Amino acid sequence: MSASRGQAEEQPDFTSEDFYADVASVLEDALERQPQRQDLRFKLLEVYAAQGRREPFVATAHEYRKHQREGGYGDWEKVVTLGRALFVEKGQIDGSSKQDKTDGEPGRKRLGDRPGDEPLNDALAELADSYAALHRDAQFLAEVDRKVAMITGHPPAPLYHATRLGRQNGGARIYLAREEPHDVLAYKLANALGQGLVAQRLGRRRLIAASTSGQQGVAAAMAAANLGLQCTVYMRAEEARSQASRSDLIRQLGAEIKTLPEDRKTPFIRDEAQYAQVLNTVRDAALKDWLDNRATALFVNGLAAGPEPYPTMLRDFHAGTGRDVRQRLVAEHRKLPAAAVAVLDGSLDPLNFFHPFLAYRSTRLIGVESEEMRAHERRRQRNRFQDARSLFFSENQVAAADVILHAQGFPSTRREHAWLRETGRVTYVESAHAQAERAVEALARTEGLLVNDASGHALAHGMQFASSLDPDEAVVILIEHIDESRPSALA
Fold it and tell me: What is the pLDDT averaged over residues 238-242?
């Protein structure tokens, strides 16, 4: 690669400096107006870490600790972890004690998402306590998996023993967990069914959802109908009208649509900032309904972001593949695999696949990043930096801070990957395109299976790791079949 080409690819890093400076300014102003907002304070800590600014990080970390000790919410262990990742040495912030530490489970307390409203915090805390008991019930999660497979038509990924590939590769047995591509509605429906089962177990009779495109509304209505529950979907009048076909489906499923009045300022959603504003509007209406009817209803959240226990519930309800693979490997192989390998494609699938193995230290978890994915991520970040700059000309700095808080540019998946990387529970490796091509070809020639190019990266590292193990060990690799309706490099 030429020097000029390399400099061009590094350009997003320079753009990010200006972007993070603006983000920090917005968050600092918002915290002056709302000093109780620990979610904004944690987000500011993340920005300072991204900037490499030690002094403001330490000062803000002390404020975070102070508010937590005075009765506010918080997860000090993750602040300490963020500081260690930034400063290498423990420095001034590593003052956590045993009673302050969480159980270390990634994603259990994603603090960047927690709102400061006390009634809502009480409702969330009550739901979190209730779900903690359900989460420990293996029969409950098994029921979720059965329901999801039956209603969505997406059963757990087939587990394939690639015997010829394993023999040719030498070393451990190689198993392939073949994940089929998901459609958006099936993904949302799996989450809605899981939360509907939570409501059913808690004796709640109605599901409440907020929807913009109508897909979340359809998913909640389908789940409610299947479980014999009532359902209320909040939408703006504009979206209920423009998405008439989905609105009709929601009503056909027996759910009620409550429309919010016309919004002359934002009649149509044109960008991410407007989408966040519209989503907040309908979500606030849905949350008010939930808070007024906590004893009989449950709010169904369709996002991976948001306050706990919603991110944990979404992760649990989509981790069926990992649970199923773990159970079947133990049944067939008589012990857990030596490694589980997945390519990091920006989705939640790798985390959902890894999660059922996290507690088992005998299984090494390997996340593979390709050259193409890293380049794509840099381009995507550059575009987001440019698009987001328009936010900072808003007079309402608190509203702008909330947009930053929930922006897709700071997804909770990255925070969880950062936690897993820093603690060493997942090993992150880089893969070249040539490696992936050779692995795809080897699988095709030995097993007659075609996988997409992205899966080739996971396959390459899974094969490499398997070759170093004894024959009585096993490695499981998450792959995705080629969709024959799409162009492929192998076509």
Answer: 89
- My answer on whether 257 and 290 are in the same domain is yes
In b/e form, how buried is each residue of 257-281, taking b as 16+ CB within 10 angstroms? bebbeeeeeeeebeebbebbbbbbb
Give long-range contacts, CB 8 A cutoff, 24+ apart: 132-137: 132/309, 134/198, 134/201, 135/312, 135/316
CA-wise closest residue to 323 among 278, 351, 291, 355: 355
Global confidence as pTM = 0.67
What is the C-alpha to C-alpha distance for residues 369 and 195, in angstroms, rounded to an integer? 32
Q: How confident is the model at residue 65 (pLDDT cuts 50, 70, 90)?
A: confident
Q: Of 313, 331, 346, which marks where a domain is finished?
A: 313
Asked if the bond preceding 155 is cis, omega within 30° of 0, the reply is: no
Task: Based on the fold, state whether residues 5 and 54 are members of the same structural domain.
Answer: yes
**Measured distance CA(343)–CA(456) in Å, rounded:** 9
CB 177 within 8 A of CB 203: no
Q: How many domains does the chain have?
A: 2
Backbone angles phi, psi at 183, to 5 degrees: -90, 160
pLDDT tens-digit profile of 44-63? 887 787 666 777 888 888 88
Beta bridge partners of 257: 233
Residue 383 lies in a domain: no
Distance linking the first and last C-alpha atoms of the chain: 29
Query: In this structure, are 279 and 149 located in the same domain?
Result: yes
pLDDT tier for residue 427 given thresholds of 50, 70 and 90: very high
The whole-number pLDDT of residue 13 equals: 29
User: pLDDT of 354-367, one tens digit each?
Assistant: 988 988 889 999 99
Decide which of 294, 313, 332 is a domain's last residue.
313
Q: Quick check: 480 and 455 in contact, CB under 8 A?
A: yes
For the chain, the average pLDDT equals 76
231-235, 261-265, 274-278, 451-455 — which is least confidently predicted?
274-278
What are the helix (H) ranges across 154-300? Answer: 163-169, 184-201, 215-227, 237-242, 244-252, 272-292
